[in-house]
């Protein structure tokens, strides 16, 4: 009964969590030792339900025989699992899978320092270089989608070829519509209904990306030296952009479930010359928070009262399953003070390079700025995207994508709970491409990154996501790419490396709390 | 012998220069009177060679009978032609086409004020609005190409559809190459050989347009408040861009044939804190100057000595027939101080929205800035363009285009010589899309623009092309669009309206010099 079939495979015949079949792989000094490999394998089987709660693990002797390892290796592995709260030892009976695995804790409200930071001297280009380090085994770094599974390349090709046929004359003309071709603006306006926004096609300006939209908005409402408030942690692309525009970043306490703290924002507005607030109220990046609807409404009202521009990023909203949660803060905008920015890079095709903005009362300024920068778009592509959005099938695709992401994030959370150090906290977003992982204070995720990079595994160290000195003990793990046995093993390896690092790193400031189970009571 | 067949058509049956068949058209107060219509028709026949030098015009009586107009109308028309130097009266013999029509004068060296101007309060958006006024009869305003003749839409469509097929997976990915896809960068590097530049693909960054390339270069080397030197007059898009970036414009005296005055530039560098020089050394816009090769070399050396960045626009270079004249200043760059910007909008397809820059030693800064602004390009389009440039046939297309432009500009110059006020000067560029026309000092081309706009005809008033108060007596006439009988008649009508305006406008500061023939001795 306890013999889940997979477990019979020995650690040598491919049952090992490391995907390398090269036997030398386990000889490298950084590869997990045998007992850890065994523990990871068992943890995975427990996580997948192959070993159920209450079930007895094979006896130490049985396991040793099956896996061709020594009894002490099996004992070490079982103690490892016990320490991580996955099994419990019953004297004279053996090791049993724990009855209930309660949810792993989420990180709490962030507490960035209450002052703005200039990014001028921050070497933020390192962030991008690190993000694009090749993870030849597994990349949990960027949001590059798994093109084998998530999106439909052929459908895109057909749409582009069709648009090229129908609109080839547009290739011979300058795009006279600064704001983008009416067909696409109308399609975007129709999609905005799902965000609760009744936009007119004329309210919308097409851009090359969401970040270009945000860039144009910032250019319209700020000047170098101005202060922009953001979530904390926040998307590193925003911080790079603030740096490029010579703006100062003021990070606002943010909760991983409910997003930007409105009392904290209000305090900041009282005490700092904030020119604009740049926020992702729905599935914020990196923590995946969704502001409650009432909070979105209060945010808009608060900024309208203060005459501060709200730049809202809705690039992830469509990854949620229902329109109520998707609803944008912009839907509460009454005086054009909200500039809402989106794209279809997270839901349709990152490589199209088309985004959009409804810039409220700054519509003309944004449109003009776009033209002055020579950033007009290709009309054929605009028509191809309009076509894709209008054809139907987009909502069905979103539903599939949502289900896929929920499953991935759930599996990834389980693996993290099993393999990461005791005391690790993980965000629990309702959708999106990533999890935010918080280790003990003093943990050095940059050192972990360097270690993992050498093993062909990448992720996003937490320090990327702030202009302050926070979040070095955090990391963003993204699951947008391929997700299979290789990646799952690599994720466990990050956890193992983190545990190793906590044992050896002098930078760790607090002692490990071995008695606190990761899967807490 | 003097009866050129076209002349037999009366002014009523379509021989009139106005394309309106609505008989009321000639009743509007601004339509040319009958004698003017007759003079224009005859001028056109003289220009086209239907009436040859030394040939006698039909007698006044004959003409009156043929055209169904009064003798005094014909007399007025003949005197008009005499005044404009096209015919001469021989007592008792009649009116004869003048033996030699010498070339119309070109404008001289410009003399902008030797100080920099902030563009902050200049309402430059008016320029764009005016440029895009619909000229429902004829547009001499923008550089929108004649898609019926110049470029090949089907070839573009095929290239885009093919690239979509071959590279559809790129649509599912973020464009990891900030600088653009290697295939296109290599194709651009090969094309740069025609500019005398030995560039490596890695020197090149792909952009959405030439103006975006210039924008990125300016962002890399300047900060708000800095001074940028330009030709005078200069492309209004540059001035708009300087305004958007908060930069000051310092215009440098420029000759319509040889371009930027190097002594004047050197003086400016001695006296002003110039941060960058933004110039189009080959077929500058609007005057069409081509700097001699030695001057291009001296320009590069001068700026290298002064450690001032040179931003070179080569968007028109390929419109010249031979590589010697096409040669870019960049080809003399030894220390990476020249940032050369181009696109294929003027030679292949304005609607592709792809340009490029070789930013010399600012390559990384430009590439990073492009990424930060979220301005990555669609890889499918990049491949389509690479394909078009590599296929062969591009040089043959350029030769056809060059011949077409030379013919248009020649025909347009003749018509301007015949129909514009005495004293008008016209640039004589070796290629390009436009002519720069200088009327007498005090002439108001904005008033002329408003008048012509009401008649469905547009062009570019000279005041668009400067940050100073110069060139209100000038205009840019562009011949990129359709060019046939309708447009030729419309061009003559601008000339007639200009003559009318000189007779009536109080803003004219100098008296008309009726005795100076436009086609001067």
Quote the beta fraction of chain A.
5-15%
Unreliable spans of chain A are 1-29, 508-521
Largest chain-chain contact? A-B, 63 and 63 residues
Query: Which shape of chain A, going by the Cα principal axes?
Result: globular
Query: Could you tell me the radius of gyration of chain A in angstroms?
Result: 25 Å
Q: For the record, give the distance between the C-alpha atoms at the N and C termini of chain A, rounded to a whole number.
A: 28 Å
Q: Supply the number of helical segments of chain A.
A: 17
Q: Using DSSP, what is the number of strands of chain A?
A: 16
The secondary-structure class of chain A comes to alpha/beta
**Biggest beta sheet attributes of chain A:** 9 strands, mixed
Multimerization state = homodimer
Mean pLDDT of chain A: 86
State the helicity of chain A in percent bands.
25-40%
Structural summary, described in words:
Two copies of one chain form a homodimer. With 521 residues, chain A is an alpha/beta fold. The first copy, chain A, has helices at residues 11-15, 34-48, 60-67, 71-83, 125-131, 153-166, 182-192, 210-221, 236-244, 262-271, 293-306, 323-326, 363-372, 379-390, 394-419, 445-454, 485-504, and strands spanning 87-90, 94-97, 117-118, 138-140, 205-207, 227-232, 248-255, 259-260, 274-279, 309-313, 338-343, 355-358, 425-426, 434-438, 457-461, 474-478. In chain A, strands 3, 5, 6, 7, 8, 9, 10, 11 and 12 form a nine-stranded mixed beta sheet that branches. In chain A, strands 4-15-16-14-13 form a five-stranded mixed beta sheet, sandwiched between helices. Chain A has a two-stranded antiparallel ribbon with strand order 1-2. In chain A, helix 2 packs across helix 15, helix 6 packs across helix 14 (379-390) and helix 7 (182-192) packs parallel to helix 14 (379-390). Chain A is globular, with a radius of gyration of 25 Å. Residues 1-29 and 508-521 of chain A have low confidence and may be disordered.
